[in-house]
Each structure stands twice: as C-alpha cells, then as structure tokens.
C-alpha cells in the first residue's frame, strides 16, 4: 500500500505522534487523526493495535525503530483505492533515556545535548557536520579537522585528524564526563585508567613464547555504526546517539586522500585501498581525544572472544591499542600458527584486519619485546635504548643540552625527564643512575 517514500513519511509522522502522549489505543488513534489529513483511513486502527502488541511500553528511546515498524505494517496492508493521507501536523515525540548501565549524563534529546555542552543547536549542527561539508569542501576554514600525513616504513602513510579547538574541547568533555564511565574489557591496557604499557608487558613476563600481532588502521576501522551502537548501549535515544556519533567521527575530505601517492610496493596496494575506503566514510579520527576510549569499547567483543580463545588454549592475552599479545609455555610454539589464523578470522568477523607484516613470534632464546618493553625476565627497557639515553645525558653535561637536542624539541628538559621516568618505572636502579647524570647538566648556560 502506497509507494516507499510515502510509507516512510507517514511512518515517521505517526511514530512522532504516537510518542507524544498517552500510550493506549485511543490516545494513539486520536493523535494520528490530528496528524493526518483527510481523516485517517480504515488502516489506522489495525496499525495502532499492531504497535501496541509489539511495544507494551512506549519505545521512547527508539523513534526510528518505531517508524520502521510502522512502515512495515503499512507495507503489509492490502492496496487502497484512496489517495494517501497528507501530513497536517508534526508532533514532537517525548523521548527518554533507555536503560542506563553506567552513570552517564542523562541526555534525552538533542536539545539536552546542546544545553549540556553549553552551545546552541545551530553550533551543535555545525560541529556534528550535519551538512556533510567535511568530506566535500576544499575550504579549510569550513572544516572541523586539520590533516597531517606521516610516512610509515612498510605500510601506507598514517593520517592524523586533529580537531580544531572548539570541537576538541567538546570531545574532551564527552571523554571525561561520559565515556570514562563505560568500562573497557579487562584485557585492554591502552588508554584505560589503572593500566598502561607496563601492565600490558608485565602480563607476558617470563614466558617461553610471546606472539605479537597488529591490527591494521585500528581507529579508521571503527565505523560510525559501531560508535552509534556504543552510545545506544549506554542508554541514549537514537537522535542523541546519532548526534554524539557525529561529534566523535569524521570522513576525510576527498582532496586530502587524492593527495596521497599510490604505494610503489605491490604488497602495500591492498592496505592502501582498504585505508582509503575506511577514511572515506565516518570513522574514529586518529587525533580526537574521544577516539582511544571509543576504539577500546568498539573492540570489547574482539577482546572477549580473544580472551576466551586464550583461556581455551592455556595462554595469556592482552591488548594495547592495536597491539595484540599472546604468551604461554613451550606448547604455544607448536600452536602459534593455529592461534594466529584463529585471531585473524575473529578479527575479520569483528570488523578489524590483522597486519600480517607486523606479526612476530619470540622465544625465550632471544629478546622478547612487548610494545618496546623487554619481558624476558622482568619488564625492562632495551639495553640499546638505555645506552643511547645515557650517552645523550653525558654529552649534554659536557657540551650543553642544546648540542643534543637534534630534533629541536620545544622543552628538551621535560623531554629528557620523561624518558628518564619511563626507564625508572621499568628499572629503578637504571633510573637512579640516569637522574644522577641529568643533575650534572647546566641548563642556565
């Protein structure tokens, strides 16, 4: 009955009308009569009854789902000789939060989102790129992101998508006041409070075999649909989840991708093509404050399945961002190929892709490294890195710190202290020795 555009329009109108008041047959039928002209045809009552049979309570967080349900009922109705009714009035649906599994802010409408962020609805539409300008405009000032391409040996270039100041402030608000309340899987150690590279590496210390795998284009692989699902799971109504998704995802401008040269290595053409497809559609931008937390949440099912695989095979699994690590006894050496194959299959099913070029198998006979940390006996910094830092500190004390700042680091003093602190967190004795050398540097000269 009726063509598809007509059914869709009527369904949206009726969904809003149904959600605008009392949830009973008379209330729904009365608001339908007020919304449509001429007076609703005979199919209204059967549709109302089907809606009430399908939804015992108003789906106040799912207006789009309700509209699709109504459209399906209209499609199943017998053909009508009468012209389709027209929309006379659009009701404002009374939306509400769904089940809140975590203490996230209560935001039942897009207006509530704008109020919570202290911005107007127009400004919210602009930052959420409601007009889709980011993908198509060549004017930099009309964009919400700035783009920087970084060359990578053995892979396609890495793109950083840096939100401009106002959007970055809003994304930080979303991170700290909303996303921080939603826990990641216990196997996730990156970007998670109380966990770190050190805890990720420590889980694999003293093992006979360590297997490391890498996920290709981790952030870009997380599409907007998965982000929308995260916000819906947090309890947000569909329109709110859509707005929050738009604030935290991005589609790269066409001309930015066109400026990237095609790789000469035939082995990289596939990865280059996959990256282009991912960046062309809304995805998590690498450079946004919200992306690490959302990527962790998007990988929850992946972590759950890989942790179950690890338990079934008697090994340990943890993940730091895109770095997947398994470790275990000698038997893992024989089963490593099978595990890697299973991991690749599970990753594909969960929307990710394992970069085979970056996988590694390390036994106790050689150096075992996890995210740069040596884990053969205890978490430690590699000797070559320690010696390099010790030499920099020694030369800085002899010839002045400027002589060692070869990459023009803005705050070289803080840079060195950060590197010393990292060594100290893994090996306190080495940290003490490095700090003693640091104290000999004359920063006033």
Characterization of this structure:
By secondary structure, the protein is α+β, with helices and mostly antiparallel strands. It is 47% helix and 10% strand. It is built from 19 helices and 11 strands. The chain has helices at 4-18, 25-35, 44-54, 63-76, 110-116, 121-127, 133-136, 165-177, 197-202, 224-233, 238-248, 254-258, 269-280, 291-298, 300-313, 331-349, 383-399, 412-426, 428-438; strands spanning 36-37, 86-87, 145-150, 158-163, 209-214, 316-320, 323-328, 360-363, 369-370, 373-374, 380-381. A hairpin with a 2-residue loop joins strand 6 and strand 7. Helix 15 (300-313) runs antiparallel to helix 16 and helix 18 packs antiparallel against helix 19. The N and C termini lie far apart (85 Å). The mean pLDDT is 94.
What labels would you give this structure?
3-stranded antiparallel beta sheet; elongated; 4-stranded antiparallel beta sheet; alpha+beta; 445 residues; single chain
Spatial ordering of strands, largest sheet: 6-7-5-8
Gyration radius (Cα, Å) is 28 Å
Class from secondary-structure proportions: alpha+beta
Can you give the mean pLDDT?
A: 94
What is the element string, with H for helices and E for strands?
A: HHEHHEHHHEEHHEHHHHHHEEHEEEEHHH
Could you give the count of β-strands? 11
Tally of helical runs: 19
* Major β-sheet annotation: 4 strands, antiparallel
What is the strand content? 5-15%
Helix content range: 40-55%
Distance between the termini: 85 Å
List segments where confidence is low: pLDDT < 50 over at least 5 consecutive residues: none
Envelope shape: elongated
């Amino acid at each position: 009955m009726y063509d598809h555009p007509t059914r869709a329009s009527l369904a949206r109108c009726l969904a809003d009308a149904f959600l605008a008041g009392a949830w009973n047959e008379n209330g729904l039928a009365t608001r339908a009569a007020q919304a449509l002209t001429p007076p609703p045809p005979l199919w209204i009552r059967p549709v109302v009854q089907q809606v009430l049979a399908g939804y015992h309570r108003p789906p106040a967080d799912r207006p789009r789902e309700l509209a699709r349900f109504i459209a399906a009922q209209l499609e199943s109705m017998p053909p009508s000789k009468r012209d389709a009714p027209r929309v006379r009035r659009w009701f404002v649906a009374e939306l509400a939060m769904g089940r809140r599994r975590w203490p996230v802010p209560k935001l039942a409408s897009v207006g509530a989102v704008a109020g919570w962020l202290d911005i107007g609805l127009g400004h919210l539409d602009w930052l959420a790129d409601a007009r889709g300008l980011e993908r198509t405009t060549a004017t930099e000032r009309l964009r919400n992101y700035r783009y920087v391409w970084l060359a990578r040996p053995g892979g396609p270039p890495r793109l950083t998508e840096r939100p401009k100041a106002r959007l970055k402030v809003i994304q930080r608000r979303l991170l700290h006041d909303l996303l921080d309340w939603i826990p990641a899987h216990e196997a996730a150690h990156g970007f998670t409070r109380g966990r770190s590279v050190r805890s990720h590496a420590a889980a694999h210390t003293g093992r006979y075999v360590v297997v490391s795998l890498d996920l290709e284009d981790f952030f870009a692989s997380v599409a907007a649909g998965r982000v929308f699902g995260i916000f819906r799971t947090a309890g947000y109504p569909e329109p709110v989840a859509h707005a929050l998704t738009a604030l935290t995802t991005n589609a790269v401008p066409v001309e930015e991708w066109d400026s990237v040269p095609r790789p000469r290595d035939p082995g990289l053409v596939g990865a280059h093509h996959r990256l282009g497809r991912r960046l062309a559609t809304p995805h998590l931008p690498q450079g946004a404050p919200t992306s690490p937390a959302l990527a962790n949440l998007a990988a929850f099912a992946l972590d759950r399945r890989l942790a179950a695989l690890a338990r079934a095979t008697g090994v340990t699994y943890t993940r730091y961002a895109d770095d997947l690590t398994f470790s275990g006894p000698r038997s893992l050496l024989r089963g490593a190929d099978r595990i890697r194959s299973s991991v690749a299959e599970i990753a594909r099913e969960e929307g990710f892709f394992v970069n085979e070029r970056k996988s590694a198998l390390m036994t106790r006979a050689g150096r075992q490294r996890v995210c740069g940390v040596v884990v053969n006996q205890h978490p430690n910094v590699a000797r070559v890195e320690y010696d390099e830092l010790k030499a920099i500190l020694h030369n800085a004390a002899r010839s002045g710190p400027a002589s060692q700042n070869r990459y023009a680091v803005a705050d070289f003093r803080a840079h060195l202290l950060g590197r010393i602190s990292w060594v100290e967190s893994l090996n306190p004795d080495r940290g003490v020795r490095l700090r003693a050398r640091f104290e000999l540097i004359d920063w006033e000269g």
